[in-house]
Automatic annotation (TrEMBL):
Species name: Paracoccus albicereus
Protein name as catalogued: ABC transporter substrate-binding protein
Species lineage: Bacteria, Pseudomonadati, Pseudomonadota, Alphaproteobacteria, Rhodobacterales
Cellular compartment(s): Cell envelope
Listed Gene3D superfamilies: 3.40.50.2300
Annotated keywords: Signal
UniProt family annotation: Belongs to the bacterial solute-binding protein 2 family.
Top-rank taxon, per record: Bacteria
Signal peptide: 1-22
Length: 319
């Protein structure tokens, strides 16, 4: 091949690649909002994955409102997108809009939360076993409290969301045969740091300035981080006077663990988009139907698991 032919071939390949990028599938992503560090990381990773794969990502932030998500999905359907990613804020109320997407033959992939609609209304769901996460958190407490009386306060996630429902169930499963462990107060903190702090302040006030609380179980790390602040302001030592166990594995909780102010977290990977896009690509290629549930790993980290190193490893990842 002459130099001229080689250059022409390279130029032609470059043009084809550009055309492929420009023709990349359009994906609508209805995200819940930005209530937690974990969610921010999921958004960042989804954007990165979409860019790497040459997709056009239409991103819609629902600001925690289901009606905004439903409107976004209808708009994606009207635009004729090739697929829809949906992180559903709550579990109920999706039947009609999912039926509309199905009617338009647009595959929907659920990210990180479940819905109570029939599973033939969506292509697949990528997420963790949310009940198991709660069980792991509860088992950590069982193993670390021993026979002592332990009054637990619980910060729940968004009311009606599948992680709030399932993480509660899992935790209760783990402690149910241990009469010395009791959830004495339980309220939603809506998965946010600000509400985690506010609700923890009310728990501390109601429980003898916190003297009567042995442990906090928070459905996510951000609420735990807010609660840690409240505990410190009340003059107590989080991680010692009040044990702290939560879920997500965000950098800030590893920092708190490194400082001895939190005890354990169950990691939830924010990379839901990777498996979702793999499933969509196989489906587009030859109609391969994925499993209805693609399960991500859940891993327990404690103060013994090099939290400072885990913080360093995660701090630049978009949390
Ligand atoms: O659905 C996953 C949960 O939603 C995460 O644990 C929490 O941080 C988020 O907001």
């Amino acid at each position: 091949m002459t130099a001229k032919t080689l250059l022409t071939t390279v130029a032609a390949l470059a043009l084809t690649a550009t055309a492929a990028m420009a023709d990349g599938e359009t994906i609508g992503f209805s995200q819940i909002g930005s209530e937690s560090g974990w969610r921010a990381a999921e958004t960042t990773l989804t954007r990165n994955q979409a860019e790497e794969r040459g997709y056009q990502l239409q991103f819609s932030d629902a600001q925690q409102k289901q009606e905004n998500q439903i409107a976004a999905i209808r708009s994606f359907i009207a635009q004729g997108v090739d697929a829809i990613l949906l992180a559903p804020v709550v579990a109920t109320g999706w039947d009609s809009v999912l039926a509309e997407a199905k009617e338009a033959e647009i595959p929907v992939v659920l990210l990180d939360r479940q819905v109570d609609s029939s599973d033939d209304m969506y292509l697949t769901a990528v997420g963790s076993n949310l009940v198991h996460e709660g069980e792991v958190a509860g088992q950590w407490l069982v193993d670390n409290v021993g026979d002592e009386e332990c009054r637990i306060v619980e910060l729940q996630g968004t009311t009606g969301s599948s992680p709030a429902i399932d993480r509660k169930t899992g935790f209760e499963n783990a402690i149910k045969d241990h009469a010395n462990l009791e959830i004495v107060r339980s309220q939603t903190g809506d998965f946010t740091r600000a509400q985690g702090k506010e609700v923890m302040e009310s728990f501390l006030q109601a429980e003898n300035g916190g003297q009567d609380i042995c442990a906090l179980y928070a459905h996510n790390d951000d609420m735990a981080v807010g609660a840690i602040q409240a505990i410190k302001e009340a003059g107590l030592k989080p991680g010692e006077d009040i044990l702290i166990v939560s879920i997500d594995g965000v950098p800030d909780i590893f920092q708190a663990m490194a400082a001895g102010e939190a005890n354990a977290t169950v990691e939830l990977t924010p990379n839901m988009a990777g498996p979702a896009f793999d499933a969509l690509e196989a489906y587009w290629a030859d109609g391969t139907e994925p499993e209805k549930f693609i399960q991500t790993e859940s891993k327990l980290y404690t103060q013994a698991d090099d939290p400072a190193g885990e913080y360093e490893a995660r701090k630049g990842l978009g949390y």
